[in-house]
Amino acid sequence: ALDTLNFWSKLHININIHLVDGSENPIESSKLSHFKKNIKYHHINIFSEIYRVRNILHLINTKYCVIGADDDLLLPNALLKCVNFLDENSDFSSCYGQVLGFRYNDNQNQFYNNKYNFKNFALLSEDKRKRLKKFGLRPIPFCILSVMRTNIFKMLFDINNSEEITYYATLELRASMIVPYFGKCVAIPDLIILRNKDTAFVSVRSKENTSLFRFLFYNNKKKELERFISSLAKLLDEDKKNAEKIIKKALFYHLVFNFQRFVTVKIPNIIFHNISFLFFFKRKKKKEKAINLQDLKEFCNKDEIKLDKEDLKILIEKLSNSKII
Predict the structure, then answer these.
(1) Which secondary structure element, helix H or strand E, spans residue 259, and what is its range?
(2) N or C end of the chain: smaller count of CB under 10 Å?
(3) What residues contact 121, with CB distance under 8 A and at least 6 apart?
(4) Helix 170-182 vs helix 222-233: angle between axes, to the nearest 10 degrees?
(5) Distance from C-alpha of 310 to C-alpha of 77, rounded to nearest angstrom
(6) What is the pTM of this model?
(7) Residue 72: count of CB within 10 angstroms of its CB
(8) What are 58-108's pLDDT values in tens digits?
(9) Strand partners, 73
(10) Residue 43 and residue 20: Cα distance in Å, rounded?
């Protein structure tokens, strides 16, 4: 967390940072005293991400917001391009860029394509129902990560007793309903984030809390589903009946995608992970595709990803101490 604050404090960029720390022990105040007023640290020792962010929503007074993990690296100039795009296009609710993953291997940071491809991603229909359908049938983690208008960002966390909904992706699912409903969405070609793939999941995951099918259809999840739908329905510009109908239809599209993904991705992965030579072959191929820092610019050019010169300089400086995070 402290490294993240130091990183943003060195940049000459007009942006407010709120770092919400859910760890057991806070950072010592003596290590925070030198930060400028635009850098805010909040120690809120609550497990729920939704509750932690809700606690500081009243402090957010900018036009746009983006949420990020402190072990990922957001690139500031690409971030500003998203802000400028939203400034110029009032009918868009969110904007994002391209994503690369990284791992620390063989004493160096290695980069590779993210499994979710945001190239040419856009929800441009004037019809909010069509936008929800298109995104539901391809729900890449775009909405929750994107730069969005602050009023929409705050809606994501407008839910009471969120801990009573055990589905692990509650926040992502809310974003996939709210963000496309209230406006168009687009991914610009600029590299905006490097995602740390060495980070382990904080929450405990199981069939009980990761299955969308269970969440939608099991009797013991019925009250959770009703709470999820009602918390969204009150936010939409519809009467309650129409709002619930829109949400349920969007959830159906997500379920269709989940079934397709199970057949085309999960079953092959199960096969690969249970046949040793296939598993090691797949891992070897993935490692061969990894690129190092000196080849990153060339890789982005070939892959039609724009990498801002200033962002590249920031990245090189960040990597000078061996590890990116």
Answers:
(1) helix 240-261
(2) N
(3) 140, 142, 185, 186, 187
(4) 30
(5) 7
(6) 0.88
(7) 19
(8) 999 999 999 988 778 899 999 999 999 999 999 999 999 999 988 877 777
(9) 194
(10) 6
